[in-house]
Design goal:
The structure holds 2 protein chains of 2 kinds.
Chain A lengths: L1 H31 L6 H19 L7 H26 L8 H21 L14 E4 L2 E4 H23 L1 H11 L1 H6 L4 H23 L9 H16 L4 H21 L2 H18 L12
Chain B lengths: L14 E8 L6 H20 L10 E8 L4 H13 L5 E4 L3 H14 L3 E3 L15 E3 L4 H19 L5 E7 L2 H17 L2 E8 L7 H10 L3 E5 L2 H13 L6 E4 L7 H7 L7 E4 L10 H12 L5 H20 L4 H9 L2 E2 L12 E2 L12 E8 L2 E8 L16
Parallel strand pairs in B: 1-2, 1-3, 3-4, 4-5, 6-7, 6-8, 8-9, 9-10
Antiparallel strand pairs in B: 10-13, 11-12, 13-14
Helix pairs in contact in B: 1-10, 2-3, 4-5, 7-8, 10-11
Classes of the chains: A mainly alpha, B alpha/beta.
């Protein structure tokens, strides 16, 4: 029984971090209707940024957020502005701009291989003050870096929801995501909104980078490991749904950790896909997805 | 159709082409790149010493193809290197899963294929004429892991009864686990956990939890670099205690592992073919040169790659021809015992009729903190142990 309780705790914590990674993707998708294949690479950029800041200054990874998050925000902002916007403009009369998928795939390859050239293929881990520390509650062991990751997820999610609901910019973003043409007619500059939304989605990857650094390694294709997970979580939770991303992430985390207690861990992936398909079968729009067609 | 335009007066200098298929990106990239560096260093040394003298001083040239650890890519690369690049010899592929089908291609075309590292038994058990392996095979690695444990039981009187196997679910890990199961039965261990896991897992905490729950005396691991790092750090976090943790080279021998695990890896054991503290002439100088170029030490994988180039050069020298059949004959008759290439723990490279290096030997090392640095110290067999060191068993 102890093992199961421990598995639930681990699964929830790890899952919340998956959820945070998926949050950025779901936000970008919800607003711009762009399937961002460079999402994992943005996560990788976030991790490298966090890695270098921590390594060069020796600060606590959570202090590194001050540098990493703005850097990632502008990285996403200009990525959208310079690379994706021209494609969106060229396809402005198309309902679902498919070329954008190809562009983001290109960005993914360029980023990953550029990193490979710059920093080499090696795995890098930075020893931070919180690496490998854990809290013991009787028999239960709670990994400190993951607990902080869980807390960061809650804070970021609340902040994003508040931003979307209560600020003028947030409302513009929601308006543009509901109906881009109507929003343009109301005087909302849709491309600026897109830049901001993409920037926020990418900035969240900066938070994920700082959260992962204490217990995870960085290498150029680290994004690929999280990529598929993020996509599954986003679809499972419902496209564009913030609670969906979090709940979806925790579900995946729980399946992985509890499932592994009863079978070889290579099988848990299968369970993840089975649950994923089952949910889609029952609720095609995902757990929190709206029935409205995107 | 080939049209030559403006043929220069001098014939274009010919080279001997070696086609290398290696994982240069993806999860095994780090070892693949180390293998590439080692080949470059060896090739440079041979070329500077005047190339292959029996062929009028022809130089060696390496062509590298990234296998991405993918068997299909490996096979395509082998085909392309043979047909398009017209290579004289192939080498690679580190991942057993890639080596296995790629050597088949070479066999079909009759092009010699040198396998510096890939441990799957069957690679040299198919009666192939053109495949030559430098490294020891699976069965020998596991044989020595158990041999070491038996020895420790005798020496320390420690009771070891239960065992856990945790291994990556690729070709290599699964092959190792098969040998482990047989040996565990033979030596009377009770297997309390037999757990494959995907090397690219984003979280190995569930696996570590299972190890903790099973509470084995001995934990045997086969991991790539990334998962070895993750497992070791998570085990420290989750406070898992066993009497012995034994790795199987690969990830546990990767210089990155040492750098990234620090104190968490202290007292862990690992089987390797080679260690920098071996008593062989030339090792310190060569290691210093390698470190100067790339910033880290040579490791078992890179040494086998290094040696393989000298084996190729030696065979070419004796063949005196670029005919693949003649090169193959020369390789089969290899008995390389000296020269700058021989920095291995054994005396000579010799191949049996299946192309397996019969002398490939294994050393057991233990991670130890020495003056604040984590070092790999050779501790077994005692003849190969670093002066003044012996195994600390069980792990404190």
């Amino acid at each position: 029984m102890d093992a199961i309780l421990q598995a639930i705790v681990n699964g929830t914590l790890t899952g919340s971090i998956y959820g945070l990674a998926a949050l950025g993707l779901t936000l970008i998708f919800g607003v711009i209707k762009v399937i961002n294949f460079a999402h994992g690479s943005c996560l990788m950029v976030g991790m490298y940024a966090a890695y270098w800041v921590v390594l060069l200054t020796g600060v606590n990874p959570y202090v590194a957020l001050i540098v990493v998050v703005p850097f990632l925000f502008f990285f996403g902002y200009f990525l959208q502005d310079i690379v994706i916007k021209p494609v969106l403009e060229a396809q402005s009369d198309v309902r679902e701009p498919t070329e954008v998928i190809i562009v983001t795939t290109g960005v993914w390859y360029i980023l990953d291989n550029l990193t490979l050239m710059l920093f080499g293929a090696e795995y890098r881990v930075v020893q931070t003050s919180i690496s490998g520390t854990s809290f013991e509650l009787g028999e239960l062991i709670v990994s400190a870096p993951k607990l902080y990751g869980f807390i960061a997820t809650i804070i970021v999610s609340v902040a994003v929801v508040w931003f979307l609901n209560s600020t003028k910019m947030g409302k513009s973003i929601r308006a543009a995501s509901l109906d881009r043409e109507a929003a343009s007619l109301m005087g909302i500059n849709q491309y600026r909104v897109y830049n901001i939304a993409f920037g926020i989605g990418t900035a969240i990857m900066g938070v994920v980078g700082c959260v992962l650094i204490p217990f995870y390694y960085v290498f150029p294709t680290v994004g690929v490991i999280f990529d598929v997970k993020c996509f599954i979580i986003v679809v499972l939770g419902g496209l564009g749904s913030i609670p969906g991303a979090l709940v979806g992430g925790v579900i995946i985390g729980l399946i992985e950790s509890i499932g592994a207690q009863f079978m070889a861990s290579t099988w848990t992936e299968l369970i993840v896909y089975v649950v994923f398909l089952a949910v889609l079968f029952i609720r095609p729009a995902g757990l929190f997805g709206s029935k409205l067609d995107w | 159709m080939v049209v030559s335009v403006g043929t220069p007066a001098m014939a274009k200098e010919k080279v001997i082409k070696i086609g290398n298929i290696l994982p240069l990106s993806g999860p095994s990239a780090s070892v693949g790149i180390q293998g590439k560096y080692a080949r470059e260093l060896a090739t440079e040394m041979i070329n500077e010493a005047g190339g292959i003298k029996s062929l009028g001083g022809l130089k060696l040239e390496n062509i590298y193809v990234d296998s991405k650890s993918d068997p299909t890519v490996g096979v395509t690369a082998a085909e392309r290197l043979i047909n398009t690049n017209k290579v004289n010899i192939l080498s690679g592929c580190w991942n057993s899963a890639v080596t296995y089908p790629s050597t088949q291609v070479a066999e079909r075309y009759g092009i010699p294929f040198i396998v510096p590292v890939s441990v799957r038994n069957t690679i040299t058990e198919r009666g192939f004429k053109y495949t030559f392996r430098i490294a020891a095979k699976d069965a020998w690695w596991t044989r020595d892991q158990f041999g070491f444990l038996e020895d420790m039981k005798k020496k320390t009187g420690e009771q070891l009864t239960t065992m856990a196997f945790v291994y990556e679910n690729g070709d290599w890990g699964v092959g190792m686990a098969e040998s482990w199961r047989e040996l565990a039965k033979q030596y009377g261990y009770k297997v309390v956990l037999d757990e494959p896991y995907p090397s690219t897992a984003s979280d190995l905490t569930p696996v570590v939890m299972k190890i903790k729950k099973a509470n084995p005396d001995v934990l045997l691991l086969t991991s790539n670099a990334s998962d070895a790092i993750l497992l070791t750090n998570t085990m420290a976090e989750m406070k898992v205690k066993t009497k012995a943790v034994i790795g199987t080279g690969g990830g546990h021998a990767d210089p990155m592992f040492r750098k990234n695990c620090g104190k968490n890896a202290e007292y862990m054991f690992d089987v390797v073919e080679w260690e920098a503290d071996l008593n062989k002439t030339g090792i310190p100088e060569l290691n210093a040169e390698f470190k100067k170029r790339h910033g880290y030490d040579l490791a078992g994988e890179s040494v086998d790659a290094f040696v393989s180039v000298f084996v190729i050069a030696d065979a070419l020298e004796r063949a005196g021809s670029l005919d693949p059949k003649k090169i193959r004959e020369a390789l089969a008759a290899t008995k390389l015992c000296s020269g700058p290439g021989m920095i291995v723990s054994y005396d000579c490279v010799q191949f049996d009729e299946n192309g397996q290096n019969i002398n490939a030997g294994i050393v057991m090392v233990q991670y130890r903190m020495i003056d604040g640095n984590l070092e790999r110290v050779s501790i077994w067999p005692e003849s190969a142990a670093r002066a003044g060191y012996e195994a600390i068993f069980p792990m404190p």
